[in-house]
Amino acid sequence: MVSYQLAEDSLGTHCAPSVSIEQGVADGLNNSNGEAVASIAALQRGWAVVFPDYQGPYERFLDKKQAAHGVLDGLRAARAFEPAELSASPIAMLGYSGGSLATIWAAQQLSSYAPELTLAGIAVGGVPVDVSASVAEVSGTQNAGLGILLLAAFNRFSPEVDIPALLNERGRRMLAETTDSCGFDFVTKYMFADVDDYTAAPNIGDNPRIREIAAEIAVDTTAPPIPTYFWHSTGDDLLPIAYDDRLAESWCAGGQLTYVRTNIPTHVGGAVAWMPAALDDLGQRFDGTPLSPACG
Q1: 218, 190, 176, 156: which is closest to 11 by C-alpha?
Q2: What is the DSSP string of 107-147?
Q3: Sheet holding 257-262: strands in order across?
Q4: Residue 264 to residue 257: CA distance in whole angstroms
Q5: Residue 222, Cβ neighbours under 10 Å: how many?
Q6: Nearest to residue 209, comparing CAs of 155, 144, 139?
Q7: Taking a C-beta distance cutoff of 8 angstroms, is the pair 197, 174 a contact?
Q8: Which of 85, 154, 223, 229 is least enclosed, having the fewest CB within 10 Å?
Q9: Which has the closest alpha carbon to 138: 151, 123, 122?
Q10: Which residues touch 250 (CB under 8 Å, ≥6 apart)?
Q11: Cα gap 29→86, rounded to integer Å
Q12: Rounded to an integer, what distance in angstroms lies between the CA atom of residue 137 and that of residue 149?
């Protein structure tokens, strides 16, 4: 059984896997129904695939605790669903980009929140290591909408930070207009936008309030206590590989890491091209093959 954390990266409940996969593209293409197609490769191996709504009923994108508990509760629910006969199945987790964060957070909270679960391994790729830096890095690019999305997400799960006070009138209007938008909507609507056009002061990613939020949800530099396959592309046009290189270096000390640096162009390309290798690695974990650590 594989828990596949799709990179939902959204604010609307209709963007959640449980809704959008069932409806297909009838309500439009979004991250969940678009990425779910990749699960076919896992299903063809005879594996059961779990798609948790890890952002919860209030769509709290980037909420560390919500995501971790949502993933682990999803595994508990799948095991307890008797018709599926999964109560004794070995478990692995998989996630790319935003889904990698939920996967890592779940792995790192496994022993404290769901100690009854044992994981054979996890596979993660395209990890957004520093989300506050990403706001500036995507500004003015075709992925600028993701920077706007981050601000809207911060506003939802950390209202005490008062994100609206950091925005100008245009930025506050953006918050009001995107309360139920999917990640794909942000990308298409704000393509090539300058994030500074929505903020009261430039370089909002460097604002102490934003940096504080980013620090709270940052990926722990302590390696997950589980065999981990981790990949990132030197050709990633969204998340510079340097951040992931540093994370991998800190995780290598744990001795349960395989880190692969690919050269596939674009963030999406890195996901599509390297997913089969990630599944192969999880297959080895299911077979009981010990992981051979390799750090790039």
Answers
A1: 156
A2: HHTHHHH-TT--EEEEEEES----HHHHHHHHTTSTTHHHH
A3: 49-50, 2-5, 91-96, 119-125, 228-233, 257-262, 294-295
A4: 21
A5: 11
A6: 155
A7: no
A8: 85
A9: 151
A10: 221, 222, 223
A11: 31
A12: 14
CA atoms within 13 A on the CB side of 78: 24
Written as one letter, the residue type at 130 is: D
Residue bearing tokens 């390309």 = 269
SS3 category, 50: strand
Q: What would the two tokens of residue 265 be?
A: 């162009």
**17 burial type by CB count under 10 A (0-12 exposed, 13-18 middle, 19+ buried):** buried
- What sign for the dihedral angle of Cα 274, 221, 205, 180? positive
Contact 186, 8 (CB under 8 A): no
Categorize the per-residue pLDDT at 254 as very low, low, confident or very high, splitting at 50, 70 and 90.
confident
Helix or strand (DSSP H, E) at 76: helix 64-80
Where do we find the tokens 């209030």? Answer: 58
Per-residue pLDDT reduced to its tens digit, 37-96: 999 999 999 999 999 999 999 999 999 999 999 999 999 999 999 999 999 999 999 999
Q: Please choose, from the candidates 152, 177, 157, the residue with its C-alpha nearest in 3D space to the C-alpha of residue 64.
A: 157
> Terminal CA-to-CA distance of the chain, rounded, Å?
28
Pairing of strands 257-262, 119-125: unpaired
119 bridge partner residues? 91
Amino acid (1-letter code) at residue 205: G
DSSP state of 258: E
